[in-house]
Amino acid sequence: MRRLFVALRLPSDIRSLLLATMGGISGARWQSEDQLHLTLRFIGEVDRHQAADVHAALGAVHHPPFELALNGLGLFDRRGKAEAVWAGVAPQAPVHSLHKKVDQALARVGIAPDQRAFLPHITLARLKSSSGPVRNMMESAGGLSSPHFKIGSFALVESRLTPEGAVYTDLETYQLG
């Protein structure tokens, strides 16, 4: 079985900018440079036959290239407890459009649509219940922004969970345009 997701990979200068914002929250599990991405669609566990179907379906997705920029920081929380720190992107419309096309392609090969609302973001840190306060980091880097950068492809990524965290391997890259 393979644990798969579909992602936008970020240019190295944008990853460097994100890495420079990380810090200031004790107990946070910060993402490594290789882990920084924008998830278009989490697929989950599939066998090798279904993985081949997913690859074929994603190869049929057509969408024009577009530009994004980093746009602020946010928090995911559950019952008032912060669980993750993320960076936003703008504009969101082209990401939503590509997400919808990916979802439709996956539905054609039997992958049920994701029931959660889609919020384009780049996870920066996962927080444990023992993580320190996030207010200082949010105040110092909350206005995070970047120049626009081009998104010309998306990737099918395998995620292997290890005690040190997830290891991501790009299985295939699909060009936009």
How would you summarize this macromolecular structure in one to three sentences?
The protein is an alpha+beta fold. The chain is globular, with a radius of gyration of 16 Å.
Write out key terms for the chains shown.
25% helix, 177 residues, 9 strands, four-stranded antiparallel β-sheet, alpha+beta, five-stranded antiparallel β-sheet
Mean pLDDT: 93
The residue fraction in helices comes out at: 10-25%
Q: In angstroms, what is the radius of gyration? A: 16 Å
Run of helices and strands: EHEEHEEHEHEEE
Describe what this molecule looks like in 3D.
The chain is of the alpha+beta class. Helix content is 25%, strand content 41%. The protein is built from 4 helices and 9 strands, in the order E-H-E-E-H-E-E-H-E-H-E-E-E. It has helices at 12-21, 48-59, 93-107, 135-141; strands at 2-9, 29-30, 37-46, 66-78, 81-90, 121-126, 149-151, 153-162, 165-175. The protein has a 5-stranded antiparallel sheet, covered by helices on one side. It has a 4-stranded antiparallel sheet with strand order 3-1-8-9, with helices on one face. A hairpin with a 2-residue loop joins strand 8 (153-162) and strand 9. The longest helix has 15 residues, at 93-107. The protein is globular and about 45 Å long. The mean pLDDT is 93.
